[in-house]
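Thread title: Can someone regenerate the structure for this chain?

I was given the following input by a collaborator and told the matching structure tokens would be attached. They weren't. Posting the sequence so someone can regenerate them.
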Amino acid sequence: MQSFTLIGEDEGSSFIQTQSQFLNLGELVQSTGFHHDDDAVSLSPNPKFCLRSAGSVSPSEFGNFYFETMGESGMAQHTESSTDIDVDDKSQHGALVSVDSADVSNGKKGDQKSLRRLAQNREAARKSRLRKKAYVQQLESSRVKLNQLEQELQKARQQGIFVGNGYSGDQIHSTGGNGALAFDAEYARWLEDHQRQINELHSAVNSHLGDNELRLLVDGVMTHYEEIFRLKSIGGKSDIFHMLSGMWLTPAERCFMWLGGFRSSELLKILGNHLEPLTDQQLLGICNLQQSSQQAEDALSQGMEALQQSLAETLASGSCGSSGSGNIADYMGQMALAMGKLGTLENFLHQGDLLRQQTLQQMHRILTTRQAARALLVISDYFSRLRALSSLWLARPKD
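Best answer:
Regenerated them for you:
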């Protein structure tokens, strides 16, 4: 029977024989399961095992070789497994390196997207700051204008602009616009001249002055009425709200005013009781004039109501709680549209004054000179009584 043995090589030194118990060849074969045809296994510090055939091993080599102890054998096995783990770790490390490279590439792409988003956010924030700055500047400009208007209003109150003969100075007409103040002053002078002309006309009627001389006085009063309509047209271009609200009139006059003045139809009703006797033709002319005046007033009133409704809808379309610098463009657009609609108010004032002027002219043509003189006196006395009523009302005891 051919014998086999396990041998191990030491690369740096000679073989050292341990104290392990030698086994005979038969026991080795039985314990390890080696067959006679198998080769011998050479154990060395290199973890790789090599097989040697029995024919290449001489009996003299048995004394120079030994069997490893169980601890050393375990170390050999551990060394082999450790080597395998190291190889696996290297392969896993290579995989991790490739994965890390992909992660770095994805990270770079993500960083580029983040930088782009950051740049976009910065640009949006910059534009928002610019819009906010413009909005603040607009508010500051409006505040400065408001302060100027308040100063002008206080100055006007201190100066005190009084209007009208027979009208007490209890009420002071004042506005924040120079055009409105100028109109108030012009109206005060006009009213003084008007009262002087009415006094002359009253004296002429009472003295039974001739028709030719009386006609000159009547024509002078009619021309003077045309002057106030011209002044109102100029005042409407300066401050339409001042003209339509009648701030240049007394409280009682404002109570009965319509589109910045008196109602022609109501004035004709007042005259109807003071111009008798009238011919049938004159009565028909006065009735037709009153009817046409009423129709024109109704049409203008409906137009004014439609304008107010349209203006309210324009202003309410953007008042749903939206605010901030992003809505400045919409806000300014709505204000521009509203301003355009307010421009038509001047036309309503002009149409109202034109109706009043035409009513006076038609009345003058229908009536005789003496009747026209009495009509002008009645109209003047009516408004004088309204001014006196305002003075008495303001001077009443406040208990």
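Residues 1-88, 159-176 have pLDDT under 50 and may be disordered.
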